[in-house]
Amino acid sequence: MDFDFQGLLEMLIPPVISSITTLVVLGITGRTNRKMKKDQIRMQRVEKLYTPFYIVCMRGAVPENDTLHFNFDTATRFLDLFSENVMYMSTESQRLYKAFYLSFLDYFISDEDENQKSKTFSKAKYDSAFRELAKSLQTDYQSLCRKLKLEQPIELF
Predict the structure, then answer these.
(1) What is the mean pLDDT of residues 50-75?
(2) For residues 73 and 108, is the Cβ–Cβ distance under 8 A?
(3) pTM of the prediction?
(4) Which one-letter DSSP state was computed for residue 71?
């Protein structure tokens, strides 16, 4: 009995090549789908948080207009934007958001009878917390734009 090695190879090679091709295509498709999903999430973050924040800053000339973010209505707009979209922030920005929120309460919601020295300290603390959070958000925004191949925003903070 003679073993037909050539015949065995001719019989096995087409299914093996077909299987390898299928695995490669599935792998490439999976990677593409994962990248598309990541990009969708990144774009959602940009649309929900970073672009609206950037627009409010540009319209109000923040940080050049030092008094704008001390205005209660504007500060409340920032607070609402941050609070409603905190889940889109990076871990660092979330940590800074907490400090911003507490300083917002301390400055805007504190007792009316507070002495001037304490109020001045609260204002400085709020300003510092706002600027730190704004810098972090801007860094996040620039990073997302780079990953999404979008135009880089100008640096505000």
Answers:
(1) 81
(2) no
(3) 0.76
(4) S
